[in-house]
Design brief:
Metallo-beta-lactamase, Chain A; 468 residues; 3 domains
């Protein structure tokens, strides 16, 4: 028996490779599927099944492409209605995989078709649960993404309560839990940084699995403090349900090196966004005017999905040299396939062509400390939970995820300062604000990690509902 967790930190997503006697099952694959095929080929094994725990919202899965390339059968749990060929399993239906078996456990709640997959060893003993977005380590899947018709988030939360208690908590404590996501995913509120656990550990530590919790208490706790989902979520669900382009075709059409002249011409003649993915310290020193910064070294794809509202938005890329195809691949993971090309030679070619350059004003926390004494305006773009746990007394909370909702709060003429936890998100926010004409924005380098080492007055006024 071989089990491989293939974890992608940018998406906080876990895909799984299971092999027995030359037969392979893949669970929740990423859109680029060659790695799974390569592992199977190396092991002289054949991909037999492609299991999908549900219609994913936070990334485009590779199920359609993987099935086309390998002949593996796509399998969903009950009630799923995809627009392509797939086997819709019954609850408790068993699939043989070499000496192993995989049982489908229908666990509605996160979505109505959500299912977990229970792996049994060659002796028929429960070995591992691939829990999808039904059960995370430290949390459970948010119940607000699949509201439809008369089904509300409270209804879904109630279904999730029953699924957990009737299908998951009845399993033995030593059963391994392999979730679909870890910390950083927007599919839950309180996900652990760990990516592998056990049923027993989750019964002891997961707030949603308390033995004495009533359904009413569960519904209240699971729905309390939920932030609105990113705008791209329903668009990714649509792609996962209806199908999508082969990623190889997307890369071929998008990986076009553009000269400075070509790049500038396309930027002027289309509505393309210029997306600069270099490191934030490089971006602040100089960038193409009107560029938006979202660095490839951070939580790149989810931030693109959260901040660029339309997955069909034309995009021009400025990337580190050698990172062009990687950037296109990571954009495609969240459905952004409309890349028109990238600036050949990166930003240096723009400078060498003596084109107009913009810069971002970025200051140290020592400068901020002095400016606060002069009543400077400070905006904190961290998440509400981070702000609630501790923040600068005079700061306003304007989370990056919902920057558009706070635009009217930023002053038009007076200088103001933005910070995050470490400096990545604040540069994203500052680039967006500057592109919209707020040239008085100033980034605080080092973010809250550096602010803690100053004498700037801070508070820890906790709002429990926000911290859930």
């Amino acid at each position: 028996m071989i089990i491989k967790q293939i974890y992608t930190g940018c998406l906080a997503q876990g895909a799984y490779y299971i092999e027995s006697n030359g037969e392979v099952a893949i669970i929740d694959p990423l859109r680029e599927v060659q790695d799974y095929i390569d592992i199977a080929t190396k092991n002289n094994a054949k991909i037999k099944y492609v299991f999908e725990t549900h219609f994913h919202a936070d990334f485009v899965s590779g199920h359609v492409t993987l099935a086309e390339k390998t002949g593996g059968k796509i399998i969903y749990g009950p009630t799923a209605k995809p627009n392509f060929d797939a086997l819709i399993a019954e609850d408790n239906q068993v699939f043989k995989l070499g000496e192993l078996s995989i049982t489908v456990l229908h666990t509605p709640g996160h979505t109505m078709e959500s299912s977990c997959f229970l792996l049994k060893d060659k002796n028929g003993k429960d070995h591992a649960l691939f829990s999808g977005d039904t059960l995370f380590l430290g949390d459970v899947g948010r119940p607000d993404l699949a509201q439809k018709g008369n089904i509300t988030e409270k209804d879904l939360a109630g279904f999730l309560y029953d699924s957990l208690r009737n299908k998951v908590m009845t399993l033995a404590d030593d059963v391994i839990v392999y979730p679909a996501h870890g910390a950083g995913s927007a599919c839950g509120k309180n996900l652990s940084k760990e990516t592998v656990g056990t049923i027993g550990n989750q019964k002891e530590t997961n707030y949603a699995l308390r033995a004495d919790m009533t359904k009413e208490e569960f519904i209240k706790e699971v729905t309390d403090g939920l932030l609105p989902p990113p705008a791209y979520f329903p668009l990714n669900v649509k792609l996962n349900k209806e199908g999508y382009k082969n990623i190889d075709d997307v890369i071929e059409q998008s990986a076009k090196p553009l000269s400075v002249k070509e790049f500038e011409l396309i930027a002027n003649e289309t509505e393309a966004i210029v997306l600069d993915v270099r490191h934030q310290t490089e971006f602040v020193k100089g960038f193409i005017p009107q560029s938006i910064f979202i660095g490839i070294d951070g939580g790149f794809a989810p931030w693109v999905g959260a901040l660029i509202k339309d997955i069909n938005q034309p995009i021009l890329l400025v990337t580190p040299i050698g990172k062009e195809e990687d950037t296109i691949t990571r954009l495609s993971r969240v459905g952004f396939d409309n890349v028109l090309g990238y600036l050949e030679g990166s930003f240096n070619s723009w400078k060498k062509a003596d084109k107009e350059i913009d810069t971002l004003n970025s200051v140290s926390v020592d400068v901020l400390e002095n400016k606060i004494k002069e009543n400077a305006l400070v905006f904190d773009v961290r998440k509400p939970g981070e702000f609630a746990s501790e923040h600068i007394v005079v700061a306003e909370s304007t989370p990056l995820d919902f920057l558009n909702d706070h635009i009217s709060e930023f002053p038009k003429k007076e200088d103001f300062y933005v910070h995050c936890a470490g400096g990545y998100r604040s540069v994203i926010a500052a680039s967006i604000l500057k592109a919209r004409g707020y040239h008085n924005v100033i980034d605080v380098a080092g973010g809250y990690a550096a602010i803690r080492n100053t004498n700037i007055e801070r508070t820890a006024a906790v709002c429990p509902s926000t911290l859930k």
